[in-house]
Amino acid sequence: MRTLICGLLGAAFIGLSASAADTRDENALDRKGQFKAIQEDFSKAQAEGYMALRAAKTPKMPKTADYVARVLTLVEASPKDDLSLEMLSWLALADHGKDARVIDLLIRNHFKNPKIASLCEAYSFGALGANKPLLEKVLSDNPDNRARGLACFALGVMATDAMDAGKTAAEAERLFERCAAEFANVKQGTGRLGDSAKGYLFEIRNLAVGKSAPDVETEDIDGKKVKLSDYKGKVVVLDLWVEWSGPCCGPSRAMIPHVREMVNKLGGKSFALISVCGDGRGILKEFLKQESIPWTL
Fold it and tell me: In sequence order, what are the residues at sequence separation of 6 or more whose Cβ sits closer than 8 angstroms to the Cβ of residue 293?
């Protein structure tokens, strides 16, 4: 009887081991499915964190390091394939480029892959964690024109974010000029790099610290033309808003007494506040029946 029981237990353990081995083999083949499950876990944890934040509770945001470890295990199975590029790109964005292993794997295995354009596009829109050495490798060596163009634009955005009056301003201008000259027709979202580059070049050349502000013109609440040059020589604060986010919304409306105090205190001392509203005059006039605003609207 003991022999029979031992034999049955032994068979059961063998069966369990075989079953576990089969599951591991299946999972090893189904890397894409495992990756999708990890993404879903991360999205769920992130959503729960944001919900807590909205409810004014201490949020428990997902620790990206935990997800990096899980995904890198899948990448190790085949670090050079397109799925690994997809997984590493996701990690780079989710982790904001903090884990050097992720960037290192991208540089070693994928900087020449045309599909890295998707990651470059995210960086071209200002996604956090853009890595300069990776983007420079894509720009210099990737055979795909779109990947190179998006990398060039992303490098320009990085230089703009770090812009000062010297080296980085010149670097940003050079990169956006190259985008406009070489990659103007490259798609970026619903637009083209050429148009986006022109916008950045205008900002660098006209709106950077130390530049004279363009002489914009609008109309006040009574239809009278108002130009920025009318306030030349003064410190001007431009307040841009629409009804749903400006003085008519609760938090902004609560700020009005403080802003009014500031204007009353500094008015006549080379200071001016100009509120530019994106709504119609009717909405604004109704609002002014309830609030006193002693500055230009």
Answer: 247, 256, 260, 275
**Which candidate, 275, 276, 259, places its Cα nearest to that of 267?**
259
Can you give the residue ranges of every domain in the chain?
24-110, 114-211, 217-288
- 262, 264, 275 from 272: Cα distances, Å: 10, 10, 10
- Global pTM? 0.70
Please write down the long-range contacts of 64-69, taking CB distance under 8 Å and 24 or more positions apart.
64/91, 64/94, 64/95, 64/96, 64/98, 64/99, 65/95, 65/99, 67/38, 67/41, 67/42, 67/91, 67/94, 67/95, 68/95, 68/99, 68/101, 68/102
Structure tokens at 76: 């190790």
Q: In tens digits, what is the pLDDT along the chain, a chain of 297 residues?
A: 333 333 333 333 333 333 333 344 445 458 999 999 999 999 998 888 878 777 767 767 778 888 999 999 999 999 999 999 999 999 999 999 999 999 999 999 999 999 999 999 999 999 999 999 999 999 999 999 999 999 999 999 999 987 665 567 889 999 999 999 999 999 999 999 999 999 999 988 888 777 777 888 888 777 888 888 888 888 888 877 765 544 455 666 677 788 888 888 887 678 888 877 766 677 777 777 766 676 665
At position 47, the amino acid (one-letter code) is A
State the Cα–Cα distance between residues 271 and 263, nearest whole angstrom: 8
User: Under DSSP, is residue 250 helix (H, G, I), strand (E, B) or coil?
Assistant: helix
Residues sharing a CB contact under 8 Å with residue 106, sequence separation 6 or more, in sequence order: 85, 88, 89, 92, 116, 119, 131, 134
- Judge residue 177's burial from the number of C-beta atoms within 10 Å of its C-beta, 0-12 exposed, 13-18 middle, 19 or more buried: middle
The token duo for 161 is 């974010």
- Domain 217-288 in this protein, CATH class: alpha beta
Pairing of strands 191-192, 187-188: antiparallel
